[in-house]
Specification:
17% strand; globular; five-stranded antiparallel beta sheet
Length: 169
């Protein structure tokens, strides 16, 4: 899956250089650490191990990295990636206050009973869960576009919730 991360990093070259280079470097560093720690349980400099990333989780991560990199940087999500053994991931928002560890997160999951992949967000008062796969028969390109639309909708909901909370203050 590292080649997919490398392809996504190459696509980033056409975007704003300074911020995107920082984001690409951060994501690649996190990816390398995830690859290294997945196999051995500890970080070993210079050692890369393959790690499984589910194709739907990969679409979400690539879309965030390529199309929403400015948003990722503004929210501090370029530092909070964890890749799980089952191919899902967690992107943690950085703490907003000292002593407040859980500032929210975005994660993918799989519900085995419903045979459904999800992307979920928890941030402040917002909790939302969005399906990543609508139909077993959907073609791959249509599915990829639908997943990207879902991610965009999720980001819009986070932004709306933040605007509402700022209006209350």
């Amino acid at each position: 899956m590292l080649s997919a991360a490398n392809r996504a990093s190459a696509k980033i070259g056409s975007l704003r250089s300074a911020d995107v280079t920082c984001l690409a470097t951060s994501f690649m560093t996190v990816t390398r650490r995830a690859l290294a720690t997945h196999h051995s349980g500890r970080f070993e400099i210079g050692r890369l191990y393959p790690v499984y990333i589910h194709p739907l989780s990969q679409i979400v991560l690539e879309h965030l990295q390529v199309s929403r990199s400015d948003w990722l940087l503004r929210k501090g999500l370029d530092q909070g990636l964890t890749i799980n053994k089952d191919g899902t991931f967690v992107l943690s928002f950085p703490p907003e206050f000292d002593g407040h560890d859980d500032a929210g997160r975005i994660w993918t999951s799989y519900d085995a009973d419903k045979k459904q992949h999800w992307v979920t967000v928890y941030k402040d008062t917002l909790l939302g869960r969005y399906p990543l796969k609508g139909s077993v028969d959907a073609c791959w390109h249509t599915e990829k576009a639908l997943v990207q639309e879902t991610v965009d909708r999720l980001i819009e909901r986070i932004s709306d919730a933040e605007r509402k909370s700022m209006a209350v203050m």
